[in-house]
Amino acid sequence: MLLDLLLPRRCVACRDAGALFCTACRAALPALTPPLCALCGAPVAWPVERCRECAGRRLAFVSARAAVPYDGDVRRLVRRWKEGGLRPLAAIAAELVVGLIPQPDADVVTFVPPDVWRARRRGHHPAEQLAREVARRWQLPCAALLRSTAVQRQRGLSRAERQRNPAFRALATVSSAVLLDDVYTTGATANAAARALGGRVEVVTFARAVRRA
Fold it and tell me: How many domains is the chain partitioned into structurally?
């Protein structure tokens, strides 16, 4: 309480005092709504089984869905959450995910594990925070089922390099799982994680990069 008086919370988007992400900014977020690609969840002009983003790719997950596009206020929120250490933003992201994405039919919720570089620097893991918040709201168990074996950081890599770099090892086998991550960029990370898990994997992320025509 004293800390709030000395350093009042400000919205990460509009900078108004009172909340980390105010009601007005939350309501103004553009949701990712149909029509979407049935496989990768990219916004499309009409319903399709595969879009130009995922056509010709062998994807290990059965579907990917995100709550909001990774742009504008969402980008600022994610940056403050991941790099600024504002862990309460995980609960806000989870509320948006649960409110905008139907609950998948799965046995367990898991998450994309951190690589060693980011885990050491941040001291927290946003994808795990999001997964545990979402699992609690969906009343599903949440378990760490993967370990990262990536040999190079993803940041700064090209799309082709991103697709070659992610590598994961499964710590357990499951028949069906929801795989949580904070942002879907190219799908390379989600695909590598889903392949390591095996079984039926549905990917859910808070945000998704949207490629403009």
Answer: 1
